[in-house]
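Reply to dn_fold:

You asked what the input looked like. This is it:
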Amino acid sequence: MEACIFCKIVKGEIPCEKIYEDEDVISFLDIGPVSKGHALVVTKEHYETLLDVPEKLEKAILNAVKKVARAQSSVLGNDGFNVLFNNKKVAGQVVPHVHAHVIPRKANDGIRFEWIPRKYPGDEMKEYGNNLRKFL
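and this is what came back:
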C-alpha cells in the first residue's frame, strides 16, 4: 500500500522511535501516546485487520507484544498494560494496517477504556451462542 503510513515506516521512508524489530514485525512508540511508553506492534507486510493476517504471523505479533510489554514493565515500572487491536473504522482503527497498541498502565493514571454492559433479553444469549458455535 503506497499511501499507508505504517508501510512507509516499515520501509524507512518515515522516521519512528523504533524499539523492536524482527523479520515479521516492527514496534515503535506511538506519536500520540495514551501513556508514556505507549507502543505499536505492526506487521511488516500490509494487512488491513487481524482477520487478514495469515496464521504464520499471528505468533510473531503476539511474541513481539509480549516482549514490548515486558520491556515496558521492566523499564517504566508500570503496574499493568493494555493490548488493543482496533479493526475497521467503526471500531476505532485510524490506520488501515493491522497493529497492536501496547499501553503501559499505572494505578490512578486516569486512562479509561469504558463500555456500558448490556444484557441479552430472554433466550437471545443462547441463540447467539448456538449460531456462533455452528459457524465455528
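The chain has one domain: 5-135.
Hope that clears it up.
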